[in-house]
Design goal:
The complex is a heterodimer of chains A (about 240) and B (about 250). Chain A has about 240 residues and is mainly alpha-helical. Chain A contains nine helices and no strands. The longest helix of chain A has about 30 residues, at about 75-105. Chain B is an alpha+beta fold. Chain B folds into two domains: about 5-110, Ubiquitin-like (UB roll) (Roll); about 115-245, Orthogonal Bundle (Fumarate Reductase Iron-sulfur Protein, Chain B, domain 2), CATH 1.10.1060. Chain B has helices spanning about 35-45, 115-125, 145-155, 165, 175-185, 195-205, 220, 230-245, and strands at about 5-10, 20-25, 70, 75, 95-100, 110, 115. In chain B, α3 (about 145-155) packs antiparallel against α5 (about 175-185), α5 (about 175-185) runs antiparallel to α6 (about 195-205) and α6 (about 195-205) crosses α8. Classes of the chains: A mainly alpha (about 240), B alpha+beta (about 250).
Chain lengths: ~240, ~250
């Protein structure tokens, strides 16, 4: 609409994209996919707990030595952590700004309220906040050991996992958060496909099925570890 | 039929509004919802009260003027416009809530009437094609493949009523904008402005204060013309393509 004047520099394409709601959604989709990729790798790593403490602890050690001797001890892991931190920040900032915008777009609500949309869709925002809080606890519990029940031992992740899931609150918090992950991924993955333009009437059923399956497999994989500790399969 | 209506009454844009309760006797199942409001207004006029203001024009479901949220759903329980909604969709003795479209971009003018010119400004930002002046071009000069023509027509069905915005939990106009963008972007006649159209219309949509899309899908459920939800994905695809092209 606006006439482009030769004198002023037009805003850069990236800036214009970030100002747009579709641009922010694109940031959310890409950062979400980065985090989902991490979760898939994470759950695969978690399942190594079923092969015993030696293999699980060795896997934890490998995460720190990967890339050696080119990379220094732990550098690859820290690089991954920085990427994930950037993804969490980008995802959170976009979500916050879009939520504020949505609230401003409807200052007066309807008198006649009715249940809208699916549960997974409705819980995206608060579910995201719950996941962020879980993330803080999860890192303090099993990465730094600050909030770990019992004696936390660096380099002995198998024992640390068993410790956490031997407490009722450790299980409760974890199971609740994994439910939230499943719901978030269920709507989030399908949504990301739409935002990135992969959706079409012909592909819709397949995309929904793929998102549902990913969410289910992810949640089942994560939940299997505390369940295994509770039932004594892993001890 | 005896129906109880709870209707949003608001004198003007600046006034406080509230729901007011009315009872309409002698409504018939074959009446349209607008005829129910006509009946109510006749009663109100005879009693010396202000009639309920509401937008209406064609009353045959093609103009998109009749905008009202009935029992929490834009255009009510049937997938059509309020003028084509009939009282057979309700039961004798029902209480029905009638409210205006709710969105910051659609300020209430009076009662159920809202100002929807924000949608017009989105159209002005790119919902057109450039054609040389003169006599009408020969109809077969520009061939259009049948699937493209079908897709264009599917989106051209949008009547701009704004039900998608009214239904959206975020007050987003993405379904409306996607209908307008896709309608012209799939046609060869729309190709010269393909990039500027989508970028301009999305920028205008954001400028008007509509919310962002969370793909809740309420819009496509409410749309009386059946614009499908994947149309939004198609517009996102166009937008990303245009953003890449203008950047590179």
């Amino acid at each position: 609409m606006a006439l482009v004047t030769k004198a002023g520099r037009p805003p850069s394409a990236l800036r214009a994209a970030w100002r747009s709601t579709i641009g922010k959604k694109t940031v959310m989709a890409v950062s979400g996919l980065v985090m989902l990729g991490f979760l898939v790798a994470h759950v695969a790593g978690n399942l190594k707990v079923f092969f015993g403490s030696e293999e699980f602890n060795a896997y934890g050690h490998w995460l720190r030595t990967v890339g050696a001797p080119v990379l220094h001890h732990g550098w690859a892991l820290w690089a991954l952590r920085l990427v994930l931190l950037a993804a969490v920040a980008a995802h959170g900032v976009s979500a916050y700004q879009l939520s504020r915008r949505a609230a401003r777009a409807r200052p007066t609500g309807y008198v006649h309220r009715r249940a809208r949309t699916g549960y997974a869709t409705r819980t995206m925002r608060w579910g995201g906040v719950i996941l962020l809080l879980f993330l803080v606890w999860h890192i303090l519990d099993l990465t730094t050991g600050t909030a770990h029940p019992g004696g936390f031992e660096q380099g002995r992740p198998y024992q640390n996992v068993v410790d956490t899931f031997s407490t009722w609150y450790g299980n409760a918090v974890y199971l609740l958060a994994m439910g939230a992950v499943g719901l978030h991924v269920r709507h989030g993955l399908w949504s990301a496909a739409q935002t990135l333009g992969a959706g079409s009437p012909a592909r819709d059923r397949a995309l929904r099925a793929a998102a549902d399956a990913t969410a289910l497999v992810l949640t089942a994989g994560f939940v299997s570890v505390p369940v295994a500790v509770m039932t004594g399969v892993v001890s | 039929m005896r129906l109880t209506l709870r209707v949003w009454r608001q004198r003007d844009a600046g006034a406080e509004g509230a729901m007011a309760t009315y009872t309409v006797d002698g409504a018939l199942p074959d009446m349209s919802f607008l005829e129910l409001l006509d009946t109510l207004n006749e009663d109100l006029l005879l009693r010396g009260e202000d009639p309920v203001a509401f937008d209406h024009d064609c009353r045959e479901g093609i103009c998109g003027a009749c905008s009202m949220v009935i029992n929490g759903e834009p255009h009510g329980p049937e997938r059509t416009t309020a003028c084509q909604l009939h009282l057979r969709s309700f039961r004798d003795g029902d209480t029905i809530d009638v409210e205006p479209w709710r969105a910051a971009a659609f300020p209430v003018v009076r009662d159920l009437v809202v100002d929807r010119s924000a949608l017009d400004r989105i159209i002005q930002a790119g919902g057109y094609i450039s054609v040389p002046t003169g006599s009408a071009p020969e109809a077969h000069a520009t061939p259009v493949a049948k699937p493209d023509a079908d897709r264009a027509f599917e989106h051209a069905e949008c009547i701009g009523c704004g039900a998608c915005v009214a239904a959206c939990p975020n007050g987003s106009a993405m379904l409306f904008t996607s209908a307008k963008v896709n309608h012209l972007n799939v046609l060869p006649q729309g190709a010269p402005e393909r990039e500027t159209r989508v970028l301009g219309m999305v920028a205008a949509m954001d400028e008007e204060g509509f919310g962002g899309c969370t793909l809740a899908g309420e819009c496509a459920t409410a749309c009386p013309k059946g614009i499908p939800l994947p149309s939004i994905a198609a517009m996102n695809r166009e937008w990303l393509r245009a953003a890449r092209r203008t950047a590179g």
